[in-house]
Write a structure and sequence with these properties.
This protein has 419 residues and is α/β, with parallel strands linked by helices. Among the domains are: 139 residues, Leucine Dehydrogenase, chain A, domain 1 (Rossmann fold, 3-Layer(aba) Sandwich), CATH 3.40.50.10860; 153 residues, NAD(P)-binding Rossmann-like Domain (Rossmann fold), CATH 3.40.50. It has 15 helices and twelve strands. Helix 2 packs across helix 15 and helix 7 crosses helix 13.
């Protein structure tokens, strides 16, 4: 049985990863003190009138880890297990992620501890609007720009944008990204995270000399990022042999029909029961023989107790923090190449940046233009991280953190301290 101690909470992992990279780059103590911890942490109480007339109080958070390189940027998640430490960790990772892909944002994150699967649409709308009004002092297109995350979507962003705009007195589409197209959203945003994962996997396979055509792929987590990644890899000729969601895991060693699986998941909300597949246990999924493993679920899914079972040649972190530091060390020891989350899943925030730019300019781009820009950003960033990995002989996660932390440290050192 796993314990919090054996895995470590997400914020402890984020701090440990920072210290490891900071030690490797010999970052001075003063700079560490300035960039390691969040700038602002807000906890809010969210009373909501439920459909049955009772008042239920939810707890919400918004954390700005860094605004040294620009406005804070980061998603909002609605999940029963949201905690302040988790949000602080995610905001920290967002800072390094934005810096790795060299976009002018800092890291932010938000969340509400709730179970959206057991809430009506009206209850979700009332909660979202109340949460927006509570974090209003922190957000804005020049301050902090939320986006969708776990169990939030374009509709959630529309409610936030509308609430913010109504209070301000005029329409402000740039306050959030991941909006519906009709409200100033960007083409290509919904599939951006998965597309970014695909571009980095392409680059890693080229480096490792793994032919993508015929490569066996396992995807843990078949939500937005996981399903888009699976679809693009399937189209490139890879063989997706197993996937999982929160309800179960399925396997077919000959390969799953991903377009049909996505269709079934859209209709039923689950992957279990898909024709020509067998049900397997979650621990079996991670241990399957494959070339590419894509953890696209939640944090801490690969850890000291199961990392040794991983047989993939390449692990591409589509989720945030899916591998613990102890898990990292085991994967590294076993010669498994890792594309770290702050590089691998940065496609979402990159296209969020494109959306914000389009909103601020009131000028919108074609989808193919967005895909080309995203591919250029992701593959350039992969090469930058790989160069540090090879030259310094450090693991890819440390290399990515060195790149991201170094850029934030430079910004802080040049800006200095006010007053």
């Amino acid at each position: 049985m796993l314990t919090t101690k054996s895995i470590g909470n997400a914020y402890d992992v984020a701090l440990e990863n920072f210290d490891t990279a900071a030690d490797a780059m010999e970052l001075d103590k003063d700079t560490r003190e300035m960039i390691k911890y969040p700038e602002r942490v807000l906890t809010v109480s969210i009373p909501v009138k439920m459909d049955d007339g009772r008042i239920h109080r939810f707890e919400g958070f918004r954390v700005q880890h860094s605004t040294a390189r620009g406005p804070a940027k980061g998603g909002i998640r609605f999940h029963p297990q949201v905690t302040l430490d988790e949000v602080k960790a995610l905001a920290t990772w967002m800072t390094w992620k934005c810096a790795v892909v060299n976009i002018p944002f800092g890291g932010g994150k938000g969340g509400v501890t709730c179970d959206p699967k057991n809430m009506s649409r009206n209850e979700l709308e009332r909660m979202t609007r109340r949460y927006t009004s509570a974090i209003l002092p922190l957000i804005g297109p020049e301050q902090d720009i939320p986006a969708p995350d776990v169990y939030t979507n374009p509709q959630t962003m529309a409610w936030i944008m509308d609430t913010f705009s109504m209070i301000k007195g005029y329409s402000i589409p740039g306050v959030v990204t991941g909006k519906p197209i009709s409200l100033g959203g960007s083409l290509g945003r919904n599939e951006a995270t998965g597309r970014g994962v695909f571009y980095t996997v392409e680059s890693a396979c080229e480096h490792l000399k793994i032919p993508l055509k015929g490569a066996r792929v396992v995807v843990q987590g078949f939500g937005n990022a996981g399903s888009v990644t699976a679809q693009l890899l399937h189209e490139a000729g890879a063989k997706v042999i197993a996937v999982s969601d929160s309800n179960g895991c399925i396997h077919n060693k000959k390969g799953l029909n991903i377009p049909e699986l996505i269709h079934m998941k859209t209709l039923t909300g689950r992957v279990e029961g898909f024709p020509e597949s067998e049900t397997i246990r979650p621990e079996e999924l991670l241990a399957l023989e494959c070339e590419i493993l894509v953890p696209a679920a939640l944090e801490n899914m690969i850890h000291a107790d199961n990392a040794g079972a991983v047989k993939a040649r390449l692990v591409a972190e589509a989720a945030n923090g899916p591998v613990t530091p102890a898990g990292d060390r085991i994967l590294e020891k076993n010669g498994i190449f890792l594309i770290p989350d702050i590089l691998c899943n940065a496609g979402g925030v990159t296209v969020s940046y494109f959306e914000w730019v389009q909103d601020e300019q009131h000028l919108f781009w074609e989808a193919q233009d967005i895909y080309k820009r995203l591919e250029r950003v992701m593959k350039t960033s992969f090469r930058d991280v790989l160069k540090i990995h090879l030259e310094r002989k450090v693991p890819m996660r440390i290399a990515a953190n060195i790149l991201g932390i170094g850029r934030v440290a430079e910004a802080v050192q040049i800006r200095g301290i006010y007053p």
